[in-house]
Amino acid sequence: MSTLRKLYYQLPPSWRFVARRLYYWPYDLYDGLSGQRDAMIPPRGMIFTGSGDFKAQGEKMLEYFRTLAGLKPEHSVLDIGSGIGRIAIPLTSYLDETGRYEGFDVVKRGVDWCRKQISSRYPNFNFQHIDLDNDLYKSGGANAANFIFPYEDNSFDFVVLTSVFTHMLPSEVANYLTEIQRVLQPGGRCFATFFIWNNESARGTEKNPAFTFPYDKGHYRLMDEQVQAANVAFDETYLDQLIQEAGLKKEATYYGFWPGRKKEECKDFQDIVILEK
What we know:
Blueprint: H1 3-10, H2 13-34, H3 54-69, E1 76-80, H4 88-91, E2 100-105, H5 108-119, E3 125-129, E4 156-161, H6 170-183, E5 184-194, E6 196-197, H7 199-205, E7 215-216, E8 220-222, E9 232-235, H8 236-245, E10 249-254, E11 271-276
Parallel strand pairs: 1-2, 1-4, 2-3, 4-5, 6-9
Antiparallel strand pairs: 5-11, 7-8, 8-9, 10-11
């Protein structure tokens, strides 16, 4: 693990947001004064999910939803871990008037921004703040392992989780997979990203000390023992078992370049898994 990442994880959750706002404050001030920032793109200091170009990453994910998982403009979409709108923003120009978007997140400031900037313009886009405990983003709240999604059975065509299962422990992942199965319509699909641990990824991370999972917990591995939700890698066989027990079927896996695979041969940094009910 890099020194900078380790120092970041040592900060209390609330301080991590402050540190990012301070780091990007000069850039955001310039963007605001110059009028260069689109109102539908959050200030860099407020973005707490993912890395790289915020807009380009969201647009790339939308293309994958369409081409890899069959997302249609008329679909009802559930965005688990909606963050600060990286997935929602490109969907505003893709979902038609019969489509619907629901998102929820544990970080209230992200939900508030999305409601103000997105829901105010697109009334078929709704965001909820859910008070769940996660030692990467916040302290306190309910246990995600027991959380029941606030949606009816069979109410979505498409569920997406980008960089969510990478911050959850086994009991939480098992519960979320079960809830995803419940809220998906028959034939509905789920697009999810993981860090999948297998023989190939284990060999790869040996050559990449800046991004590895040294703490072996049996079915899963941690990057940092003090902040367990920082990054979590799941044994592939165990993950397949959780998926099957939840009543879902794995349609495809696209391995990412995080453990040293050739970037040009991968879809994304994390591993992408397509599930179907």
